[in-house]
C-alpha cells in the first residue's frame, strides 16, 4: 500500500501489514541483545517476580499484544503461565511466531539469560523451550478486537505496538485502552513505547508511528492502571534513527470499579 502524504493521518487499517518482514526486523533489532532491551528485561522480570512472590491461587493466562517478531515479552511471562497468547495482526509475523513455538531460535537464549538473573526464571523446573512449546499459542487478530475479551487474561505485555501502528493519537490511546481492558482486575502488565518515533522500516517497507512522549503514555494509562510507573531509556544511535528514546511502563490493571465505562 502506498503511504499517504505527510499531511494526512495514517490509521492502522491503512497499513499493509502483510508487507512486514519479520526476518529483517529480527536481524536488525534482536539478533544481538541491545542495552535498552536488557534494561527493559531487568524491569519487567523484577516487576512480574515481585507480583507473583505469593503464588497465584489458580491458573495464569498471559497475553502479548502485537507480538510481532519479538519473543522476549512472552519469555518474561513464562514462569507463571499455563497459557500464553501471542496476538498478532501481520500474516508474515504470525508465520514467524508459529515457526518459533516448537523450538525458538538460538538468538533468544541471550534474552532468557538476562531474565535468569532473577532466581524465579533460573528455577524453572523444565527447559524454557519445552515450556514455551507447551504454553504458547499464536493467534491472528487485531488489537482493537480485544474489546470482545475484556478481563480475560491474568497478565499481559504490549511492546512497541500502540505507538507503532498509526500516526493517530486517538488510535494510540484506544490501543492502550484495549490492551488494559483485556486484563483481569489487578493483573500485572508491562508495556514499552518508542518515544517521538517518526516511523520505522521492517525490510524494504516503511511503517507509521505516533509521536508520543512520557506525558502521552502516562495519560493513556491513568484511567485503566494503578500502582504503575514509567521510565525513559535514552535512544541508542546503534539501533536506528527517528526516535528519541524508549518508555517503559509497568503496573497493575485497575479494579473493576475504578475503570471508566463507555
Q: Helical element count?
A: 9
Helix content: 25-40%
The count of domains is 1
Q: Per DSSP, what share of the residues sits in E-state strands of 2 or more residues?
A: 15-25%
How far apart are the termini?
33 Å
CATH superfamily membership = Vaccinia Virus protein VP39
**Order of neighbouring strands in the sheet with most strands:** 3-2-1-4-5-9-8
CATH C-level: Alpha Beta
What is Rg? 17 Å
CATH fold descriptor: Rossmann fold
Helices and strands, in N-to-C order?
HHEHEHHHHEEHEEEHEE
Structural class: alpha/beta
In oligomeric terms, what are we looking at?
A: single chain
Structural account:
By secondary structure, the chain is of the alpha/beta class. The protein has a single domain (12-52, 59-256), classed as 3-Layer(aba) Sandwich (Rossmann fold). It is 31% helix and 21% strand. It has 9 helices and 9 strands. It has helices at residues 22-29, 35-51, 72-77, 91-101, 109-115, 119-122, 128-135, 169-181, 214-221; strands spanning 61-65, 83-88, 136-140, 155-159, 188-195, 200-202, 205-207, 225-234, 245-253. The strands form 2 sheets. A 7-stranded mixed beta sheet has the order 3-2-1-4-5-9-8, with helices on both faces. Strands 6-7 form a two-stranded antiparallel ribbon. Strand 6 and strand 7 form a beta hairpin. Helix 8 packs across helix 9. The longest helix is centred in the first third of the chain and has 17 residues, at 35-51. It is globular and about 50 Å long. The two termini are 33 Å apart. This is SCO2525 family SAM-dependent methyltransferase. It comes from Streptomyces caeni. Keywords: Methyltransferase, S-adenosyl-L-methionine, Transferase. GO terms for molecular function: methyltransferase activity.
Amino acid at each position: 500500500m502506498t503511504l499517504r502524504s505527510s499531511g494526512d493521518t495514517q490509521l492502522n487499517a491503512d497499513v499493509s501489514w502483510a508487507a512486514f518482514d519479520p526476518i529483517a526486523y529480527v536481524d536488525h533489532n534482536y539478533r544481538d541483545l541491545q542495552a535498552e532491551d536488557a534494561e527493559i528485561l531487568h524491569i519487567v522480570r523484577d516487576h512480574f517476580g515481585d507480583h507473583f512472590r505469593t503464588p497465584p491461587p489458580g491458573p495464569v493466562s498471559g497475553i502479548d499484544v502485537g507480538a510481532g517478531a519479538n519473543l522476549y515479552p512472552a519469555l518474561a511471562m513464562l514462569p507463571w503461565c499455563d497459557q500464553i497468547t501471542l496476538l498478532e495482526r501481520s500474516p508474515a509475523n504470525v508465520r514467524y511466531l508459529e515457526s518459533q513455538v516448537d523450538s525458538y531460535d538460538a538468538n533468544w537464549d541471550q534474552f532468557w539469560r538476562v531474565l535468569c538473573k532473577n532466581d524465579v526464571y533460573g528455577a524453572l523446573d523444565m527447559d524454557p523451550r519445552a515450556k514455551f512449546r507447551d504454553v504458547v499459542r499464536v493467534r491472528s487478530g487485531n488489537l482493537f478486537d480485544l474489546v470482545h475479551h475484556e478481563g480475560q487474561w491474568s497478565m499481559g505485555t504490549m511492546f512497541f505496538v500502540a505507538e507503532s501502528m498509526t500516526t493517530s493519537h486517538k488510535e494510540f490511546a484506544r490501543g492502550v485502552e484495549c490492551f488494559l481492558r483485556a486484563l483481569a482486575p489487578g493483573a500485572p502488565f508491562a508495556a514499552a513505547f518508542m518515544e517521538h518515533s517518526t516511523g520505522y522500516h521492517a525490510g524494504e517497507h516503511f511503517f507509521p508511528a505516533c509521536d508520543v512522549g512520557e506525558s502521552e503514555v502516562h495519560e493513556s494509562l491513568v484511567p485503566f492502571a494503578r500502582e504503575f510507573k514509567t521510565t525513559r531509556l535514552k535512544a541508542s544511535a546503534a539501533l536506528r534513527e527517528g526516535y528519541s528514546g524508549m518508555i517503559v511502563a509497568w503496573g497493575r490493571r485497575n479494579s473493576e470499579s475504578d475503570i471508566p465505562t463507555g
